[in-house]
Write a structure and sequence with these properties.
335 residues; five-stranded antiparallel beta sheet; two-stranded antiparallel ribbon; 41% helix; 14% strand; disordered N terminus
């Protein structure tokens, strides 16, 4: 028979099953704090949609605000993305555009990666297509595993630095005219640029957004062009002859620019196409800028329009530091 002392010892010993239940509940409670305590959202300005994890509900946040050490955790405050499109659209309102003219602009900050464009109309390229022609020639040479010939280099130098049309025609024929240009542009990522008919390379159609893509192929690291090809094109664009130092270079402080301009008086209307594309440096920050225009009554007025538009466009990246959150980077308004 069991003694009274043995029965007392048996009643005092806790049940193993109850101990396991208590341990499991404690582990679940700790896991709940960890899962709830590490969920937070950080937003920053960029050129694409803002994505984030779902924030914890107020109830779950309050239940997990204390850490295991007893210190209160503080959720990071999400910073709103800057709507560069809204700023660019607003900035372009300051540009006086004649009734007969249209203008479009696109900008990319090489530091932040933010970009925005204004106006989606297609324009004649005039001589800015010469950058595209040389980029196509360089890509074709890379594919063939060869260097440019001495004649091709001579044509390239005159075509970019002096905007020589005869040299452009020679290289236009070398690349296979519009077919060659369009094939290269497909690889470069241009989607709305179409080579001119026959020998009419100056009537190639393009958009400001596409020209920004072209500039990224020349000045960016993520390019189909080799580092040597990019350096070659950049060097020529930095050595434009003195009477062509206008256009997007009006934005730059000092000589921190590389560009190619285009201008063409249309025989059908007597009005001018005036365009400018390039890389500029302002207050230590590098920007890629493309401005296209048509319908100006003179070249001089077209240049003034392009320079005003370039300054306004870049101001959208230098003047405004706050705006509503936006996931769009393309404005569709056309003046």
């Amino acid at each position: 028979m069991e003694s009274s002392r043995a029965r007392r010892r048996r009643r005092a010993r806790p049940s193993r099953g109850r101990t396991l239940v208590h341990t499991a509940l404690a582990i679940a409670a700790i896991a709940g704090v960890t899962a709830g305590g590490t969920a937070y959202v950080t937003a920053r300005a960029h050129s694409g949609p803002v994505s984030s994890a779902k924030s914890p509900s107020p109830a779950s946040s309050s239940s997990s605000s204390a850490s295991a050490s007893g210190e209160e955790s503080v959720e990071p405050v999400a910073e709103p993305a800057v709507d560069r499109v809204a700023l660019l659209t607003e900035a372009m309102k300051s540009v006086t555009v004649p009734a007969s003219a249209k203008v479009s602009a696109a900008v990319l900050s090489l530091d932040s990666g933010e970009s925005a464009d204004y106006g989606d109309a297609a324009f004649d390229t005039a001589s800015i297509v010469k950058v595209d022609i040389l980029a196509t020639l360089l890509l074709q040479a890379q594919d063939a595993g060869r260097r440019l010939t001495a004649a091709e280099k001579a044509y390239a130098t005159k075509m970019i630095e002096n905007s020589d049309n005869a040299s452009a025609t020679a290289l236009w024929n070398t690349i296979g005219r519009a077919d060659g240009l369009d094939a290269a542009n497909k690889r470069f990522g241009l989607t709305r640029t179409e080579g001119g008919d026959g020998a009419l390379w100056g009537l190639t159609q393009t958009t400001a957004a596409d020209q920004l893509v072209m500039l990224q192929q020349v000045f960016g690291d993520d390019s189909k062009l080799s580092e040597a090809s990019r350096a070659y094109l950049q060097r020529l664009m930095k050595n434009i002859e003195a009477d062509q130092h206008w256009g997007v270079s009006a934005v730059a402080d000092g000589s921190g620019w590389a560009l190619k301009n285009g201008w063409l008086a249309r025989s059908t209307t007597g009005l001018w196409d005036v365009n400018s594309i390039g890389r500029v440096t302002l207050d230590g920050t590098a920007y890629l800028v493309a401005v296209l225009s048509n319908g100006s009554t003179s070249q001089a007025k077209g240049i003034s329009l392009v320079e005003a538009a370039a300054k306004a466009a870049v101001s959208a990246f230098t003047d405004g530091n706050s705006a509503s959150v936006s996931t769009s980077t393309s404005a569709t308004e056309t003046n």
